[in-house]
Amino acid sequence: MAKKKGVKPIAQNKKARHDFFIEESIECGIELKGTEVKSMRQGKVNLKESFAMVKNGEIFVQGMHISPYEQGNIFNTDPLRPKRLLLHKSEIRKLGSAVQRQGYALVPLDVYLKDGRMKLNLGLCVGKHLHDKRESTAERDVKREMARMVRTNNRGE
Questions:
Q1: pLDDT per residue over 63-103, tens digit each?
Q2: d(Cα 51, Cα 56) in Å, to the nearest integer?
Q3: What is the DSSP-derived secondary structure letter of residue 93?
Q4: Contact 31, 86 (CB under 8 A)
Q5: Is 124 helix (H, G, I), strand (E, B) or coil?
Q6: How many whole angstroms separate alpha carbon 34 and alpha carbon 37?
Q7: What is d(CA 96, CA 7) in angstroms, rounded to the nearest whole number?
Q8: Closest CA to 90 of 18, 3, 26
Q9: What are phi and psi of 129, to 5 degrees?
Q10: Under a CB-based contact definition with an 8 Å cutoff, are residues 91 and 26 in contact?
Q11: 126 alpha-carbon distance from chain centroid
């Protein structure tokens, strides 16, 4: 059976895009067990409260919930267990030094299947303040209103 090419999105962390300014994003692999992969292929993963941290020269994702696979019986693992991310040592050092700076965090942005392998898009983020969130909401509303006006004007012609 040939490997499937391309990218298939599995899950997105929309809350992270709302709560943080994304400075940089990095694609990395995830170390998973077999039943976790099967469950993720079914889309049973939640990134909402997840974050990443550097520990002993490795990066781990905490709080990423992967629901147990129905047919997994004894092979299922803890849904919230820390999962190791696969990155080059230089990238880990760079991210670790950036996290030590004031206000930076490593947040998983989305999970996808790329050429048959699970990948995670990790963002180097800075937290937004309440007024920043209001500004981004107002900008989104203005764009939506402009698109609505364009659609109604195009129907009349």
A1: 998 888 888 777 777 778 899 999 999 999 888 888 887 77
A2: 17
A3: H
A4: yes
A5: strand
A6: 5
A7: 28
A8: 26
A9: -90, 170
A10: yes
A11: 15
Query: How many whole angstroms separate alpha carbon 105 and alpha carbon 13?
Result: 14
Beta bridge partners of 113: 8, 118
CATH class for the region spanning 7-128: mainly beta
pLDDT digits 0-9 by tens, 26-65: 999 999 888 888 888 888 898 988 999 999 989 999 999 8
Domain residue spans in the chain?
7-128
Residue keyed to tokens 């007024």? 131
**Which has the closest alpha carbon to 82: 65, 66, 60?**
60
DSSP 5: P
Query: Can you tell me the distance from the alpha carbon of 95 to that of 86, in angstroms, rounded to the nearest whole number?
Result: 13
Burial class from Cβ neighbours inside 10 Å (0-12, 13-18, 19+) for residue 111 reads buried
Residue for token digits 């059976």? 1
- Six-digit token pair at 50? 């997840």
Q: How much is the pTM? A: 0.76
